[in-house]
Amino acid sequence: MLNEWTTTGWEQIALIALSAAAMYVTVILLTRLAGVRSFSKMSGFDFAVTVAIGSVLGSVILSKNPPITHGIAALVFLFGLQIGMAILRSRFPRLQLLADNKPRLIMIGGEIQHDQLRKAKMTEDDLWGKLREANAINFSQVLVVIAETTGDVSVLHAKDKNEEIQPELLKGVIAGDRYRAARPR
User: Fold this and answer.
1) Which DSSP string corresponds to 133-176?
2) Please, what are the domains in the chain?
3) 157-177 burial string, b = 16+ CB within 10 Å, else e?
4) 1-50, pLDDT tens digit by residue?
5) pTM of the predicted model, to two decimals?
6) Cα Rg for the chain, rounded, in angstroms?
7) By C-alpha distance, which of 31, 95, 94, 33 is closest to 57?
8) What single-letter DSSP state applies at residue 110?
9) Which residue in 65, 98, 182, 184 has the most C-beta neighbors within 10 A?
10) Does residue 30 contact residue 79 with C-beta atoms inside 8 Å?
11) pLDDT tens-digit profile of 158-180?
């Protein structure tokens, strides 16, 4: 039994190589057709499609079942869904509101916006880690922290705490208006 897990024949390796090459070419062609959004994580939908594409690739490359043709069909369908959803989201703003999360302002300066932190399903420890990743060494450097729609966290910081954030950068951010209210005039 252990032997089955650790050994394979050249024929199987050749099939894996052919499957990998066919799927690689398919993904490259579809990515060229679909554009740069193909592997982005701009929305939850984009992330889900990226995970599904990875699953299809892994299944087809490492197994005889599903066959390559099924894998190619699945990839065409997934890329088509992503293109279709992108078109629909751009034409119907209400669909975008339903399909996408909105970014949340979770910290202003050194003040945590606890209600928004909770709604983002984050803990203070998560926040501290993101501040460290952004090389913030002092709360006085932090202008705002935003939980993005992708699950990423953006830390907007500056050496001069009197620097202003361009209003467009907070457009569509839940609780973004709190930044203006908190700024001294």
Assistant:
1) HTT--SGGGEEEEEE-TTS-EEEEE-SSTTPPPPGGGGTT-BTT
2) 2-98 (no CATH), 104-182 (3.30.240.20)
3) beeeeeeeeeeeebeebbbbe
4) 666 667 778 888 899 999 999 999 999 999 999 887 777 777 778 888 88
5) 0.73
6) 23
7) 31
8) T
9) 182
10) yes
11) 888 788 899 999 999 999 999 98
